[in-house]
Amino acid sequence: MTRLKKTRFLRFPADWILGLCALTFVFVAGALSAPPAQASPGQASVNEKNLELSLNDCIVKTLKNNLGLAAEMLTPKMMDEAVAVAGEKFYPTVSFSYNKQSTKSASYSFLDASDIVATRQNDNTTQLSQVLPTGGSLSVSLYNYLTDSNRRFQTINPRYGSTLRLNFSQPLLKDFGFKMSRREIIVAGFNRQISEENLNQLLEDAIYRVKSAYWILVYSRENLNVVRQSLKLAEELLDKNKAEIEAGTLAPIELLTAEAEVRLRQAEILEAEAQIKNNEELLKTIVNLSAEMDDIRNVRIVPTDTPTVDRMDVNFDQALETAVRNRPDLQSLRIDLKNREFDLSYAKNQLLPDVRLQFSYWSPGLGGDQILYQDGNALSGIVIGTVAGNKTSALKDALNFAYKNSSIGVTVTLPVSNVLSRAYRAQAKINLDQTKLRIQDQEQQLALELGNAVRAVETNFLRTQAYKAARELAQQKLEAELEKLKVGMSINYLVLQFQRDLANAQTLELKALIDYKISLANLDKIMGIGRERQNVNVILESR
């Protein structure tokens, strides 16, 4: 075939002239349009610097720098404070009151006062109250007063009084029990657990996003190497054609095919390099690299992990059991189910009659200046003297329980209409049923999602094996065609086609390998074990 072209070349000078013109045009056009030299994906240009990162490095940086995760990590801490606030209802409270009063009024009876009735009174109360875990309440109070009046026939004036009182109240039906009294704390605790599971779900999603972005970047960089290798093969064929033209064994027109293929593969390199830039920016954003470096525009991320094909045999039943046990969204629904069950029990409790046991125990004390009347008769109105009293005697009598008093009783409240409480119970029952249905639906969706993920892992692994065999065959076909070309039994078109077939086979093998790695990461996310797989343990400060 080469001889035939050579004979034709010698026989028709017009073809020779046309070939030279075409060759000159191709070389000039190529010189003008040739792209500038680009740095390889593993080499940084003058203004760029490489940052080598493993997959684990990217995950650690994401958990450390990602603003969305940082914001969500504050939610469980905020819920801890909500639990603490709810628990403050069991802190004892101290209250103090003081009142000073002075009154004057006209006298309407000689038994009251001669002209104006004047009274001065000061009183204060100190009380310590405590809500009990059983739903009851306990209080201890000390009441003190001073009364000074010009009323007639008084035997003690001014008068000092003190009363020490103990009050106890306990509901027996409605609002009775440890759970009812701790309702706010229990609900806040459920909300805290849900917030932690929501954080775990975000962690699972973040780990998957990092893995996916990392392996896609690896793919784009390896794909650029494949395209460059393909360009190298095309350039070697082009150089071979040039040498044969110079030797006069090949017509110049044959150079056009090889030159066009070189230009096409150079364009593919530009597209592959742009894809690397896009994938680098995505990974930088997920990792939030700007939190560690001032200027990240000229930073080139160099992945240090390479994808490997390690077959993972996944048993669907075991995977489903693991997912049901570990999935944060299912855990969140189960916690919400407990919350709804508690709401229903509280609503049922509110339908009960309000029966309360009341108990009081108090000790009064009295003191002041004793007024002495003639013949000991206060009705005479003749004061013959006073005996000064001790201001603290009333307080001592109260504290020493000089006069013991007690009372006990039961109060029963039966509402005529309990419409609101019954509506609240119905609402709680509907919320409980709704949550149960959501759990069942989520479990069904999980089974479907997990089945797709397991099949994706198995399929992608088989794809890697198939494309590996296809790539090896394409390599053998190209090598055989090159040998045929050396002895003049092939043409440039076939060699270029086999080169492209090899590049496509390499790309497809690489794509299948990356898809396999991403499908494994997706399977971990669906099973809820991505954190465990990467040894991620977020410790949240709690009270």
Describe the structure.
This protein has 543 residues and is of the alpha+beta class. It has helices at residues 2-11, 13-33, 55-65, 67-87, 178-181, 183-247, 255-287, 316-326, 328-349, 393-399, 419-486, 492-527, 530-533, and strands at residues 49-53, 93-106, 116-131, 137-149, 156-171, 299-303, 354-373, 383-387, 405-413. The strands form two sheets. Strands 2, 3, 4, 5, 7, 8 and 9 form a seven-stranded antiparallel beta sheet that branches. The chain has a two-stranded parallel ribbon with strand order 1-6. A hairpin with a 5-residue loop joins strand 3 (116-131) and strand 4. 24% of the residues are buried.
Features:
58% helix; single chain; alpha+beta; 543 residues
What is the overall number of helices? 13
Largest sheet: 7 strands, antiparallel
Cα radius of gyration in angstroms:
46 Å
Quaternary structure: single chain
Average of the residue pLDDT scores = 84
Strand content is 15-25%
What is the overall shape? rod-shaped
- Ends apart, CA distance between termini: 87 Å
Q: How would you classify the helix and strand content by structural class?
A: alpha+beta
Unreliably modeled segments:
1-39, 539-543
Helical percentage: 55-70%
Tell me the total number of β-strands.
9
